[in-house]
Amino acid sequence: MNLAEILEKSNKIVFFGGAGVSTESNIPDFRSPTGLYGEKRENKYPFPAEIMLSHSFYVKHPQMFFDFYFNEMIYKDAVPNDAHKVLAELEKMGKLTAVITQNIDGLHQKAGSVNVLELHGSVLRNFCTRCHTEYTLEETMNSRDDKGIPRCPKDGTIIKPDVVLYEEGLDMNVLYKAVQAIQEADCLIVAGTSLTVNPAASLIQNFRGRYSVLINKDTTPYDRSFDLIIRDSIGKVLKQAFQEMTEYESAGN
């Protein structure tokens, strides 16, 4: 059975995506040679990305943290690609019940998806660490002091991005909703993720549905768990499958 047939026969699809979903929107992934952890980027900074994106580094070295964060994590001009657009269409049709994402770029919502569970938060949400006033990304970037650190206009305290840093725990409410969505799904599509970062990766073990699909160019520790594995571009695969599915439906199959 191909992906188009699976989409056609499924009514509670859950999509679980990682950094690979947004690479077609020109946002780098993490572990490829040109990714955030790749040598080409590592050489620009005195510490590895994992260190610079940790909570302790943010606390001890806020200037260096925000320099890295704003230069390497923010892509204001990025737009949704075919993968984001197809998922939004599937949700509008009532077929897709949730998008679970490890990404923080907000592109799923920009494409039109509504039920998006952001495991690692979003760069679009920011808050004062003292008074908890919320700020947009643009407001945060415009509030930087002479050291490049964003400060709350009300009390001068640091504005922190609502993203999960290393050493920080996931939002348990979001995690619970993700588990529930996967448990209730009849189809799970996993794409663009190495499935090596827990607890996010272990979420797929909660799937008890009928069809499981992996769209990933590289192997993962969970490959044997999937009914269908596709090694190709996520946007290309989803767009083609969606078109074939709509053709099936219009033909009355």
From TrEMBL:
Residues 1-252 form the Deacetylase sirtuin-type domain. The gene is cobB. Belongs to the sirtuin family. Class U subfamily. Its EC number is 2.3.1.286. This is NAD-dependent protein deacetylase. It catalyses: N(6)-acetyl-L-lysyl-[protein] + NAD(+) + H2O = 2''-O-acetyl-ADP-D-ribose + nicotinamide + L-lysyl-[protein]. NAD-dependent protein deacetylase which modulates the activities of several enzymes which are inactive in their acetylated form. It is found in: Cytoplasm.
